Amino acid sequence: MVRAARLHHLDPHLALAVAWQESGWQQRRISSAGAVGVMQVLPGTAAWMSSYIGRPLNPYGLYDNVTAGVVLIKVLNRQTGPRKAIASYFQGLGSVQQHGLYTSTKAYVHSVSALHHRMKRGWNPV
Predict the structure, then answer these.
(1) Matching InterPro entries, A to Z (predicted)?
(2) How far is CA 111 from the centre of its chain?
(3) How far is 42 from 33, CA to CA, in rounded Å?
């Protein structure tokens, strides 16, 4: 995860925080919405992120799952800025733009931000 984040110029602690919030770093996790893996990436999102890196991404593979999530955060950050990027990762960019942040999204952003801060200071949840 750290390698993928550095390769795509994203703070590794942020990638770790999102992954911990999303799945507890469990690659076999599948959500009721069909999001898979450590970064809880939808297969369609992995296909979209493939266009940014120039090769197919398999969201069921650990490295590709992490790469898809990292690149998505990077793309969203460029489009919206850091706070809304994390919100959009959770809620969806179109929904954030159309409806603003839901209460659950605000809680998600707060949790990821707190995890990010703690991880930057050396905290490891496992």
Answers:
(1) Transglycosylase_SLT_dom_1
(2) 13
(3) 8
Its domain, for residue 73, covers: 2-120
Residue type, position 1, single letter: M
Which residues are 62's β-sheet partners?
A: none
Query: What is the domain count for the chain?
Result: 1
| Tens digit of each residue's pLDDT (9 = 90 or more) over 70-95 | 999 999 999 999 999 999 999 999 99
- Residues labelled as active-site residues: 22
pLDDT bin (cut points 50, 70, 90) of residue 32 is: very high
Residue 105 has pLDDT above 80, yes or no: yes
8 phi/psi in degrees, rounded to 5: -105, 15
Provide, rounded to the nearest whole percent, the portion of the chain with pLDDT above 90.
96
CATH of the domain at 116: 1.10.530.10
Q: How many Cβ atoms are within 10 Å of 30's Cβ, its own excluded? A: 13
Give, as one character, the DSSP assignment of residue 124: -
Q: Where are the alpha helices (DSSP H) in the chain?
A: 2-7, 12-23, 43-53, 62-80, 82-91, 93-99, 103-120
